[in-house]
Design goal:
With 438 residues, the protein is of the alpha+beta class. Helices cover 51% and strands 7% of the residues. Bound molecules: carboxymethyl coenzyme *A.
């Protein structure tokens, strides 16, 4: 069995040849906008009886998508063609970025106004939804609450999406309410009264208000903080076919509604290898601080594979270079700490850890660099976001990407339910044994 990619004259259809037991099979090559090529194996089983095996999808494109482009070798990330650095440099607000990711281009003033209006209108929770918070234990993790509450939204208003307008309303509904849910889960966790959204505040300022105001004491917005949180959300808005987004697409492919699909995204994001890494990274830095462990000692532990210790906030399936989001965040952390006059000892530790790791053969050989989660936690800490809300913040930021991916699945007229194959490794045939003979 072998594969070859024949030299094909420009412009003609390209194929790869798979030879199985001496028989050649031509497989079409699909070329993306940026020139990356994929072998289309969708007819492989029909023509050869074979399936492909790619555990953990390390080498499988699960879909065609026009939303986000990543070049992991070069460290490039673009939303709808716009480099992430451009969005950061121009101070694109989260709402504007969300529109870009969901609808494909930057909004006109009229589109922005309409979107903002819809976000404001949808910000309050249905009164019955508010009652759910009473039933969660105070110690309940806000990610569990968020997951349950987004799903519960379908019980109150199941989105009926049958045209662009109803999709826009449902998307705004979700993006707006997710922020109210996040703040309310924080408040119920703290045992404080839930604070209602305000009509006069923008998206991020409203979230900070709902999290940090008290009935007798309004949170004073700090422009640097709002800017930093807008940037954090913008940098998290989408990241192509990661674990949570693939989950959303998988659920969406069964024709499940937008809210339910996105609540599945929250579940997938929670794990420490994915969105939970922002929390795990700060816990790791805090441990180093409290126990006085040096960066070199931690790196030695990580290299000892039997320890099971990973350097959190480092490494990425796709990036074999610096994660461009971490570069921007590192700078933003510096700016924010300086503006707020905060001296965070964890930043010192993070900087030292990065330096030690980037000069260590283990990390160099494996091309492991800081990812988005390495510095984001320090930024969130400076804003005053508590540790167990870090991944919730990631989820709010990722919502536009999940919504855009749900839409892409939903709008594809040739879309089919996603259903991977497997290679069965269990017993061949087992006979039933009566209970008394077992
Ligand atoms: N610490 C120690 N070793 C690592 C790490 C790490 N953080 N990341 C990768 N490696 C090793 C890995 O064990 C493997 O070693 P070997 O070849 O000897 O078996 C090698 O580097 C290559 O790993 P990989 O195939 O690139 O890793 P992966 O694609 O299976 O996993 C990852 C990607 C992000 C889960 C992993 O790098 C990791 O666990 N990082 C720490 C958790 C983290 O920061 N996650 C956030 C990811 S970015 C945001 C997001 O997705 O939400």
């Amino acid at each position: 069995m072998g594969t070859q990619t024949p030299e094909t004259p420009a412009g003609s259809a390209q194929t790869a040849t798979l030879v199985v037991d001496g028989v050649s099979h031509e497989l079409p090559l699909v070329t993306g906008t940026m020139g990356e090529q994929a072998i289309d194996i969708s007819r492989l089983r029909a023509t050869t009886g074979l399936v492909t095996l790619d555990e953990a999808f390390g080498n499988t494109a699960s879909c065609r998508s026009a939303i986000t482009y990543i070049d992991g070798e070069q460290g490039i990330l673009r939303y709808r063609g716009i480099p992430i650095e451009e969005l950061a440099r121009n101070g694109s607000s989260f709402v504007e970025t969300a529109w870009l990711v969901i609808f494909g281009q930057l909004p006109t003033q009229a589109e922005r106004d309409r979107f903002s209006e819809l976000l404001t209108e949808s910000s309050a929770l249905h009164n019955d939804m508010g009652k759910h918070f009473d039933a969660f234990p105070e110690s309940g993790h806000p990610m569990a609450i968020m997951n349950a509450m987004i799903n519960a939204m379908s019980t109150h208003t199941r989105p009926r999406i049958n045209d662009e307008e109803s999709f826009l309303v449902a998307a705004a509904h979700l993006l707006s309410k997710v922020r109210t849910i996040a703040a309310a889960s924080y408040k119920s966790h703290k045992g404080e009264p839930i604070i209602y959204p305000r009509r006069d505040l923008k998206y991020v300022e409203n979230l900070l208000h709902m999290m940090f105001s008290l009935p007798y004491d309004d949170y004073e917005p700090v422009p640097e903080v709002a800017r930093a949180l807008n940037l954090f959300f913008t940098l998290h808005a989408d990241h192509e076919q990661n674990c949570s987004t693939s989950t959303v697409r998988m659920v969406a492919s069964s024709d499940a509604n937008l809210y339910t699909a996105c609540s599945a995204g929250v579940a997938a994001l929670w794990g420490p290898l994915h969105g939970g890494a922002n929390m795990a990274t700060v816990q790791m830095l805090q441990r180093l601080h409290d126990e006085g462990t040096s960066a070199a000692d931690l790196v030695a532990q990580v290299k000892d594979r039997s320890s099971g210790v990973r350097l959190m906030g480092f490494g990425h399936r796709v990036y074999r270079n610096r994660d461009p989001r971490s570069v921007i965040l590192k700078e933003a952390v510096d700016d924010l700490l300086c503006a707020l006059d905060i001296d965070d000892p964890l930043l010192e530790i993070a900087l030292e850890l990065e330096d030690v790791a980037l000069h260590d053969d283990y990390f160099v050989e494996r091309k492991l660099y800081p990812n988005v989660d390495f510095y984001s936690g320090i930024l969130l800490r400076a804003i005053g976001i508590p540790l167990n809300m870090f991944t919730v913040m990631f989820a709010i930021g990722r919502m536009p990407g999940w919504i855009a991916n749900w839409r892409e699945v939903n709008m594809d007229p040739s879309g089919r339910i996603q259903r991977p194959r497997q290679v069965y490794t269990g017993p061949e045939l087992v006979e039933w044994v009566p209970r008394e003979l077992r």
